[in-house]
Amino acid sequence: MRIIKNIVDFYIKSSIHVALAVTSFVKVWSLEFNSSLSIYFYGLVFFATISGYNFVKYAKAAGLHHRSLTNSLQAIQAFSFVSFCLFLYCLFHIDFKTIVGGVALSALTFFYAVPLFRKTSLRTLAGIKVVIVAIVWAGVTCVLPSLENGVPFDTDVWLTFTQRIVLVLALMIPFEIRDLKFDELALGTMPQQWGINKTKIFGIGLIVFTILLEGFKDVISAKHISALSITCVVLGFVILISKKKQSEYFAAFWVESIPIFYVAILLLFSHFLF
Questions:
Q1: How far apart are CA 138 and CA 141, in angstroms?
Q2: What's 119's domain CATH number?
Q3: CA–CA gap between residue 146 and residue 33 (Å, rounded)
Q4: How would you class 38 by CB atoms within 10 Å of its CB: exposed for 0-12, middle for 13-18, buried for 19 or more?
Q5: Do residues 262 and 28 touch, judged by C-beta distance below 8 A?
Q6: What number of CA atoms fall less than 13 Å from residue 232's CA on the CB side?
Q7: Fewest CB within 10 angstroms: 63, 95, 167, 174, which?
Q8: Alpha-carbon distance 162 to 165, whole Å?
Q9: pTM over 0.70
Q10: Which phi and psi angles does 120 have, rounded to 5°?
C-alpha cells in the first residue's frame, strides 16, 4: 500500500494529473469544433503544463534548499526537466501563430510566480490568483487550438473561451476552501472575502452561467450540451460538499479529475449515443 501511495503522490505532486486535466479540455475543444489536433499539440500542452505548474510550485523551494532537497522533490525536478525537453521538441512542430500566443500565456504564468517588484507576484495580489489561472487555462485550451488549426475567432469560439474561464473559476472553489487555513489574508480569496457559504452560492451561479452561455452559440449540439450539463451537475455537487477539512485527495485528485470526466462523457456521447 505504501508503494501505491508513493506512486499516486508522485502522479499528483509532479503535475501529471493536472496536465491530463488541461489536455482533456483541449480534447473537448477539438470535439466541439470538429477540428483534429496533432499529437505534437497535445504533447505541447501536456508537457508545458507539467513544466509550468512545477515551476510555480517548486522553483522557490528548490532555490532555497537546493542542497537539501528531498528525494521526492529531486525526482520531480528531474521529471520536470525531461518534460521541458519534450515540450521544446513538440514546439518545433507547432505553427508560429500558436507559439506567439503561447509566449503571452507563458509570460502570465512566469509573472504569476516571479515577483514583478518589491517581492510582489501576480499570485499575491488580492483576488487576482484565480483569475490569472482561469485565463491561462482558457487561453491554452481554447485560443491556442484555434490558432493552431486556423479556426476563425467567431462568436462560438469566444463563448467557449468565456465558458472555460467561468468553469475553471468554479473548479478552483474547492481548492480555495481547502486553502483557507493556509492562505494569508492579503490574498483576498473568495472564501476569505465572502465566507464559505456565499462562495459556494457564487460557484453554483458560475455553473448555471456556463450552461446558459451554451444557448447563445450559433451551433448547438445535443451531445455537447448534455456532456456539459452532466459535468456541471457533478461540479456543483463537489462545490456543495467542499469544506476546509478535506481528505488528502479530494481536491488534488477528485476535483482535478472533472475535466477528464467531462471529455470521457463527451467521447461516450459522440461514439455511442448521438
A1: 5
A2: 1.10.600
A3: 9
A4: middle
A5: yes
A6: 23
A7: 63
A8: 5
A9: yes
A10: -110, 120
Q: Is the dihedral of CA 207, 211, 216, 220 positive or negative?
A: positive
Work out how many domains the chain is built from and give that number: 1
Alpha helices, H only, 33-178: 39-64, 71-91, 96-113, 129-138, 144-149, 155-171, 173-178
Q: What is the pLDDT along the chain (274 residues), one digit of tens a residue?
A: 788 888 899 999 999 999 999 999 999 999 999 999 999 999 999 999 999 899 878 766 554 444 445 677 888 989 999 999 999 999 999 999 999 999 988 888 777 666 665 555 555 555 677 888 899 999 999 999 999 999 999 999 999 999 999 999 999 999 999 988 776 666 677 888 888 999 999 999 999 999 999 999 998 889 999 999 999 999 999 999 998 888 889 999 999 999 999 999 999 998 876 6
